Amino acid sequence: MNSFKTSSLYLYLAWLIAVVATLGSLYFSEVRGFIPCEMCWYQRIFMYPLALILGVAAYYSDHRIVKYVLPLSIIGAITSLYHYSLQKLPSLVTASPCTDGVPCNMQYINWFGFITIPFLALVAFVCISIFLWIARKGE
């Protein structure tokens, strides 16, 4: 049996962040009753599989998975950054793909004047990406 390696720790940390982000997303929608906008759904599409795939990869210390999930995390971060920009830069709202339902520039939370749900997702995706980048070589 292999001993626990430092690079495996980064897989576990990436998985933990993905799980917390997934549970946080579900908390905001199912407990607090916040209806996700279109961009929120796109971010969920990238985050939810990470919680499952990274869990399996961390359990088996499979560093080969990094090349498959790192693009999901990076694209999710780009999506979150765009969504956050829609919230904080009013000039982008006219170019928004959100036309039905909840507008994408709506801010359910705005802690300290800058922490919104897309910002939280962005931080999670960036942290996951960094941990995956560090763990990519394995040991």
UniProtKB/TrEMBL annotation:
InterPro entries: DiS_bond_form_DsbB/BdbC, Disulphide_bond_form_BdbC, DsbB-like_sf. It comes from the Bacteria. Coiled coil: none annotated. Disulfide bonds join 37-40, 98-104. Keywords: Cell membrane, Chaperone, Disulfide bond, Electron transport, Membrane, Oxidoreductase, Redox-active center, Transmembrane, Transmembrane helix, Transport. It is found in: Cell membrane; Membrane. GO terms for cellular component: plasma membrane. GO terms for biological process: protein folding. It is a multi-pass membrane protein. The keyword Protein biosynthesis does not apply. One of its GO terms (molecular function) is protein-disulfide reductase activity. The chain crosses the membrane at residues 9-29, 41-61, 68-86, 111-135. Required for disulfide bond formation in some proteins. Belongs to the DsbB family. BdbC subfamily. PANTHER family: DISULFIDE FORMATION PROTEIN-RELATED, SPBETA PROPHAGE-DERIVED DISULFIDE BOND FORMATION PROTEIN B. This is Probable disulfide formation protein. It comes from Alkalicoccobacillus porphyridii. The gene is bdbC.
